Amino acid sequence: xxxxxxxxxxxxxxxxxxxxxxxxxxxxxxxxALDLVREPMSYLAGLLLLLSxxxxxxxxxMTIAACVLVIVINFWRIWPYSFLAETQLALGEQEGEAxxxxxxxxxxxxxxxxxxxYALIINQVRRHDxxxxxxxxxxxxxxxxxxxxxxxxxxxxRHPQPDAFGLVFATRLPVVRTNVVExxxxxxxxxxxxxxxxxxxxxxxxxLHPKPPLPDWNTELRDENIANxxxxxxxxxxxxxVMGDFNxxxxxxxxxxxxSTGDWRDPRIGRGxxxxxxxxxxxxxxxxxxxxxxxxxxxxxxxxxxxxxSDHRGILANICAPT
Length: 323
Prior knowledge:
323 residues, alpha+beta, Deoxyribonuclease I, Chain A, six-stranded mixed sheet, five-stranded mixed sheet
């Protein structure tokens, strides 16, 4: 029993040290990666706290205190994405008003470049039949297998890459122009599209997939990519939305700054974190795939889709544009 109490104390202190390190304003990958695990770390701290109360012992209060600090600091950072915070978007509450606007569905999926379960992704897309589709990690094999599906769309941009940063953009909405830009690095493209929904003023779409924090790959370029995506849209239109695998969580300083400086709104705020990765362990996962809107765009619905064979869950939204 003593060994278990010591192990619990050691784990609690290690988590507290990690949480305190995560507050350092640094671009080092191992510091920024700690942002990703705030939610599962809090669950583990809560479990340790309960077990320490049951086990007793002279050191249990130190373990409990460390676990409480871990939970409090993490919850402070995640707070906007809890059901206790105020929402930014009304979602289904505006369905009646949305009927008078030009509405469309949009779906994004990171298919995982090594994944060969093409049919699962294709069937899920066909089931929801989105008006706009943004796929990430598409290499030439993926593009080839997707062709029967892509042929059902009026406009398709194919940007396959042999690594994990290929893109496919397909839509039935009228397209004014599209452009693929290397904001920060040659193999992490960002897609921009200017769309003209019927009886609506034009809107811009941003498809984003920067690199994650990894050994030998700090987050300076990822953060710059995210920041550039919001300010370098070709037409500078007031109404825009962005979807994609940010390889970042919405409560990080990078995405928080992106949201606040660009006046973007997030349907997750006030509702929950909606984790998307890893797809088969969402309780211990984190929300890497995101949707944000700005201007007068409204989000009528937003959901995380069921498992589709990839390591990411897809996201689906119904969006309404002003007329």
